[in-house]
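JOB MANIFEST
job_type = single_chain_structure
chain_count = 1
residues = 204
[input]
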Amino acid sequence: MKFFEGENVFQYSWLQVAHVFWYRYPNPFSKHVRTEDILYRKVEEGILHTKRLLTKTVRVSYFGYNISIKNEPIIEESFIDPKKQIIKTYTWNIGTAVARIREECFYKPKEEKQTVIERKAWIASSKMYFPGIIEGYLIRRFEKNVTKTCKGLEFVLSNMFPSPLLQEKSSLIDKDKICEKARKAKDIAKSGAVPIFTAYANRG
């Protein structure tokens, strides 16, 4: 098993990052993300708890062989606490036989106009030959993907808030509206969530 740990700082407030959290995809740096569907959403003691199903295109090179998985299912579970100003996400894959990947991210305020994302990941290859080599390759690829993920988030933030130095507008980033926008996202995605989830649930 390989372990990754790192952090990235964005020159935007936590409220701004929380506002764009549900608008991260699509973006030019995350074209591998194909679909997003909400499986579960509920406000529990002021904390928005959401579980989503994402599908991604995964490409792996293995001793000269290129493995491409067009609809790799990924579960993303998130907890948004507007009062404490923290977002926690837990992400793991449920489909590929190549490796098991689990990621944890914590979004926290750093300075008045800064947000830090603390990230940890664990990668364990399946029972294939030379697991150490495979895990080493996957951890390097994961590091590159983190860079793309951060560029994608920066892209969305810069489009939503052209200048991070501008004063935040309460009409856009009011704490209550973060949950309200999430509820609207649930209604939009609800019709498509059941068929996709059922399809994967019936695979076994």
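[summary]
The beta strands are 2-10, 33-44, 47-62, 65-81, 86-93, 99-109, 115-125.
The CA atoms of residues 3 and 122 lie 5 Å apart.
exit_status = 0
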